[in-house]
Design brief:
The protein has helices at residues 21-36, 49-54, 93-96, 112-129, 150-158, 180-187, 208-215, 224-229, 240-245, 279-282, 284-293, 317-329, 342-354, 367-376, 392-399, 410-414, 435-451, 453-464, 474-489, and strands spanning 4-9, 39-46, 59-68, 71-82, 85-91, 139-143, 164-169, 177-179, 205-207, 218-221, 250-252, 304-308, 333-337, 359-362, 379-382, 402-406, 428-430. By secondary structure, it is α/β, with parallel strands linked by helices. The strands form 3 sheets. The protein has a 9-stranded mixed β-sheet, with helices on both faces. A 6-stranded parallel β-sheet has the order 14-13-12-15-16-17, with helices on both faces. Strands 8-9 form a two-stranded antiparallel sheet. Strand 4 and strand 5 (85-91) form a beta hairpin. It starts with a strand and ends with a helix. The structure holds adenosine-5'-diphosphate (ADP). Adenosine-5'-diphosphate is lined by residues 20-21, 308-310, 337-339, 365-367, 370, 390-392, 395.
């Protein structure tokens, strides 16, 4: 397969501009594409104040004017090596020089200030794509609503010569919806200049994520299961009709994790490092340390269930709060780390108050404690209502915490059920989004741990031996790029 030049256009990038999973993918996928020789990938992101403050070394590339509201704004393009990636940084004091990655904490598109920041980014990225001195992208790979307009703008700007475009949906729940007239006014173009602007809702709004879905050559999301689920009303967030129109060009590719960063053999956050081979002897020290740190009874025989993630309805907090009291009364421990909505945080606080010594919650974002929970828990909970890909269960597998998950999205593909297939299973799965169904799955997990420790340890080892790296998925992206080129050509 020829090695294509790919430009990733993204709002987030680990480690300099991270809010969520998008940042991790933006870092790890280009690295894996370059490492495996599947593509020649570079990135373009705004030069936020938080990146400037990180003090990375940059080189000037070029300066050029970008049209906005009928005026011209000058942007400067810099380049930098960020963790091995070649990154173009788009500098403009007014749009990117203050306020962090997103003006709003949640990254939701609730103000025109937020929308216009990324409209400007999309316009500038489009203008610069054809001007990079030594890199002529054949494919531009856009991510989520922030860059949803890039495919249409590239087509309008470069016509037949435009690069092929791929649009990846990481979070369908954030559509980037805003009034079409205001968007058109900002861009300084006639409304009919972009054919997909006819996709307007009854309030006169367009959704930038929908623009990406409609205008790109191919669309993908981060698991095959979620790619099917979003065609339904239950998961489609109102965009199922649009996605159905693009069903022929809609693919699913599961995320991986940075296995160098998430590695129990080298992880400095752990009291005892270990591998799949010596986990049986060495891993228990991490459980003991975690029980001590969280003031739980220090007992290796009590199954410890961990949760790390956003405390939101999506992540199934209500199911945990409903299911766990009966287990906490009878020989199970629970450790929760996360921040989220006030109602979910309050529910979790109340649960742990009722069961001191048996459960603990840390309402915070703490990467090191997260690693200690992955390394010290016997089981890892992900009872999500929906889960496009999910990274938590992949980290849990790598660290030997057996996942207990709902059968949805990427969890279906990465956690085959042990009960129905003991020879290949990697965790415990359940179907309905109910406390009762979670209870039944936790009971199965507890039973295995208590009644057949050797079988549990064999399951744990099998999980640790899985390939959860990006090397597994990078070739699928190479195939997707071929499809985008063929689609554009045809
Ligand atoms: P999502 O992107 O929907 O939040 P994922 O499972 O895809 O969920 O990724 C979440 C990532 O963020 C995981 O690596 C998880 O360990 C990490 N994470 C989430 N909340 C916290 C927290 N409070 N402290 C440390 N790490 C966290």
């Amino acid at each position: 397969m020829p090695k294509h030049r790919v430009l990733f256009v993204t709002a987030e990038l680990t480690p300099v501009a991270k809010i969520g999973g998008l940042a991790d993918v933006a870092e790890a996928l280009p690295l894996a594409l370059n490492r495996t020789g599947a593509a020649d990938a570079r990135l373009m992101i705004p030069y936020y104040d938080v990146i400037r403050e990180a003090g990375i070394e940059t080189s000037a590339v070029l300066e050029m004017p970008v049209p906005v509201r009928g005026r011209e704004e000058r942007v400067r393009l810099l380049s930098a090596d960020i963790s091995g990636n070649f990154v173009y940084l788009l500098e403009h004091e007014g749009f990117f020089g203050h306020g962090g990655i997103y003006y709003e904490r949640t990254g939701e598109s609730g103000s025109f200030k937020e929308i216009s920041r990324f409209l400007f980014f999309s316009q500038a990225a489009t203008a610069l794509t054809g001007k990079l001195p030594d890199f002529f992208p054949e494919i531009v790979h856009c991510q989520d609503w922030h860059t949803g307009l890039v495919p249409a703008l590239l087509k309008r700007t470069y016509g037949e010569d435009a690069p092929a475009t791929v649009f990846t949906i990481h979070n369908l729940g954030m559509p980037g919806r805003w009034n079409r007239e205001e968007i058109v006014g900002f861009l300084g173009i006639p409304a009919d200049a972009i054919p997909t602007f006819s996709a307007v809702d009854r309030h006169g709004n367009i959704a930038l994520i929908e623009q990406g879905i409609l205008a790109s050559d191919v669309v993908n999301t981060v698991s095959k299961t979620y790619a099917k689920e979003i065609l339904t009303e239950e998961y489609g967030q109102g965009l199922e009709g649009t996605l159905q129109k693009r069903a022929e060009d809609l693919y699913g590719i599961i995320n991986g994790i940075q296995t160098e960063r998430f590695n129990p053999a080298t992880d400095g956050a752990l009291v005892q490092r270990y591998t799949a081979e010596d986990a049986k002897e060495k891993r228990p020290a991490n459980k003991r340390a975690l029980q001590k740190e969280l003031r739980l009874e220090q007992n290796p025989d009590i199954p410890l269930f961990g949760f790390v993630g956003r405390l939101t309805n999506q992540k199934g907090m209500k199911l945990i709060v409903e299911a766990f009291p009966r287990f906490l009364k009878r020989g199970v421990q629970l450790a929760i780390l996360g921040t989220g909505s006030p109602d979910n945080e309050a529910l979790v606080r109340k649960l742990v108050e009722d069961f001191p010594g048996k459960s603990a919650a840390v309402i915070d974002f703490d990467a090191a404690l997260a690693q200690r929970i992955y390394a010290g828990s016997d089981f890892f909970l992900m009872p999500s209502r929906f889960e496009p890909s999910g990274l938590g269960q992949l980290i849990a597998l790598r660290y030997g915490a057996v996942p207990v998950v709902r059968s949805t999205g990427g969890l279906v593909e990465t956690v085959p059920d042990y009960t129905s297939d003991p020879a290949r299973g990697l965790g415990f799965r359940f179907g309905p989004f109910t406390g009762e169904a979670l209870t039944e799955a936790v009971a199965r997990a507890q039973r295995l741990f208590v009644e057949d420790r050797n079988a549990y340890l064999a399951l744990q080892k099998r999980g640790m031996e899985q390939d959860v790296s990006w090397e597994r998925s990078a070739p699928e992206y190479a195939t997707l790029y071929e499809k985008a080129l063929a689609k554009k050509g045809g």
